[in-house]
Amino acid sequence: MKLATTEFTHAHQFDDNAQQLDAASLGMWVFLLTEIMFFGGLFCGYAVYRSQYLPSFEAGSRLLDITFGATNTAVLLASSFTMALAVRAAMMRHRKALMTFVALTMLLGLAFLGIKFFLEWVPDWRDGVVPGLHWAPSVEVVQHVARHSGAVLARVEMFYVFYFFMTGMHALHMVVGLGIMTYLLLKARTGALTCGHFAPVEVSGLYWHFVDIIWIFLFPLLYLIGGRY
Amino acid sequence: MSAHVVPVKTYAAIFATLLGLTALTTGVAFIDLGPLNTVAALTIAVVKMLLVALFFMHLRESPRLTKVVVIAGLFWLLLLISLTLADNLTRGWTPVPSGWQSGATQSQP
Predict the structure, then answer these.
(1) In chain A, whose CA is at the least distance from the CA of B17?
(2) How large is the ipTM?
(3) d(CA B4, CA A222)
């Protein structure tokens, strides 16, 4: 395969390469702000319902598996680390290193989704805690809620509405991120990202890290602040 | 963001710190601190967010314009949450005036 070797030069509306890169990353940040407002609305709704249904939300939170939550946080942070190294490799024009780190980021992203889906959502489905028209949680869940003073089953369902919507939207963003990583991998193969034009890697990295930051907040809000003592 | 290459050591140190903070926040959840549990969890989350944004997302080396845009976005988020909660958490503070329904008969001359 013939590698792209032409040195990258900025588009004609920019003064230099650095200005084009600044414009690209600023544009990505503005998009990420719209994402902050989107997830912010969910966080805000969660805060309102949690303050009103506190015992029920704590009972719901204690039903989540903290081990999977913490493991997934570590997996996602590791993927952010490899993504940062991928951007660095693109800057230093190391094609092989760039491809390796993008592939590693994808693997860690897939590991996160695998843990989320097979070890959390599928058992949740079996426990019957997925909200719907005929919400029928298992006997264990009903007993757990009954032991928690002040908790009401119907309000625990509200906790699960937020839990599934927030983690679901987060997972959807991860799937989009994996698509972007696939594009980067194909593009990097041709050498087009290691001839001075690393802005696509940089802005994809911004998106990936942003999705990581959302999880950094979802983990304590959903898994931790219900109390485990 | 100019093409400034950060040493791998810096990224590794940030990653290690992030893992340490994850262990810390998980550990704190098992200790009963009352309302301080929520404060501790959110403080650690904000610190982790700042580490990711400043180092992994290169905000530290970004032009001032980018920084201002990000701060404006976070400020707007703060407004969204704080003004909503300012309404929601204070609703019980002032009592509903009694005799509101019978006001029509009271106003008879």
Answers:
(1) A77
(2) 0.93
(3) 37
